[in-house]
Amino acid sequence: MTHNKASRCGVPLTCCDSSPLQSSKNWRAAVDLTGRLLTAHGQGYGKAGQPTSHTTDSLQLWFVRLSLLTKLNLFQNAELECEPFGNLDQPDLYYEYYPTVYPGRRGSMVPFSMRLLHAELPQYLGKPQEALDRLYNLKTICLAILENLEKGLAEDGSMITLAQENRQASLTLWRSRLSRVMYSMANCLLLMKDYVLAVETYHSIIQYEPQQRVQLLSGIGRIFLQIGDVKTAERYFQDVEKAYQMKGSNLSHATCVLMNRAFVYLSQNNYADAHATFLEVLKIAPKNPVANNNAAVCLLYLGRLKESLGQLEGLVQQDPALYLHESVLFNLTTMYELESSRSTQKKQALLDAVACREGDSFNTQCLKLV
After folding, report:
1. Using H for helix, E for strand and C for coil, what is the string for 35-59?
2. 268 phi, psi to nearest 5 deg
3. How far apart are CA 206 and CA 234, in angstroms?
4. What is the pLDDT of residue 317?
5. Among residues 22, 14, 5, which one has the least CA distance to residue 359?
6. Residue 167 burial (C-beta neighbours within 10 Å; 0-12, 13-18, 19+)
7. Phi and psi, residue 108, nearest 5°
8. Which residues contact 98 (CB under 8 A, 6 or more apart)?
9. Half-sphere exposure of 31 (CA within 13 A, CB side)
């Protein structure tokens, strides 16, 4: 049974001509469209090794294409298409290389999100150390830019005078970018099972995002729960409760506190109290998918299969956009198998629902049809 699924952070998809295909989750068709749009820019299919000129639009298209390939788990394809860009630091990727097209502009044309995706990609191909090296390099760049801004210099360290408003906006932007890099580093370290460094990284994010303290401390506690260190997890959860009490009433923080308690009960196989606590969460946030899913799992472990099955089926029927999720469907199909030897028909009905609503990247293995 899946209690709580920590999913990989979704790759952000920015606006381009393929956005209607993205919104309808036709990812493969969107990939094909980006290929045709890149061909119109003189790049893409059959253009490898030929001289080309980059523009901000063409690089944005490349980012969207690589994001789509990653979304479809076509990691090797994404890596192959990334190779001609090298480390994304070649001269023709800078505004200064095209003075007639971008007069007076300086710096890299490569979207920051594309740099982050390029850094993360090796971890999906079984090379987490390479990903970590790239992420550390990105972190160093972010820190250097922040240091320049805090010293009163421009982002690149030059003496260009920036208006106070622009400097503050730039500081906010680069702090958020640094946080994004550090989240990716922590996820990579978790993949490598280096829990000590992952926890240290999450701790260091708090200084850049103090408003996320409750969520980050909760996340650290849940890491310790997953590796079986319940006492350390409970210490972190106590810190969360203290932070919650200091901040005052906040629904998202209240949900965090209750979810933490419920997960501790689950780790102790105390399904009755876990179920009761998930119900408390649902009084605050009735549509919380993790609480609904786990409440149903608790009912199953309490021997109330029919109630559990009815709850999950009701959720999928009432709000398929929210609950046609792989972990929910995995639990539901498991319950069908426990309920009857004729589970295949019900699984097929779920597959039909998925086919109507979900896109190309949906993992149908969760339906256990084979």
Report:
1. HHHHHHCCCCCCCCCCCCCCCHHHH
2. -95, 10
3. 19
4. 87
5. 22
6. middle
7. -85, 145
8. 53, 54, 55
9. 18
Residue 12 has pLDDT above 50, yes or no: no
Residue-by-residue DSSP string for 286-307: TT-HHHHHHHHHHHHHTT-HHH
What pLDDT band is residue 2 in, cutting at 50, 70 and 90?
Answer: very low
At residue 146 the predicted structure's pLDDT band, cuts being 50, 70 and 90, is: very high
**Closest to 268 (Cα-Cα) out of 238, 234, 241, 293:** 234
pLDDT average, residue stretch 316-328: 84
Helix, strand and coil content of the chain, in percent to the nearest 5, comes to 70, 0, 30
Q: Quote the CA–CA distance of 141 and 80 in Å, as a whole number.
A: 25
**For the packed helices 251-267 and 230-247, what is the interaxial angle rounded to 10 degrees?**
160
Q: How far apart are CA 275 and CA 125, in angstroms?
A: 38
DSSP at 97: G
Q: What is the separation of C-alpha 76 from the centre of its chain, rounded to a whole number of angstroms?
A: 20
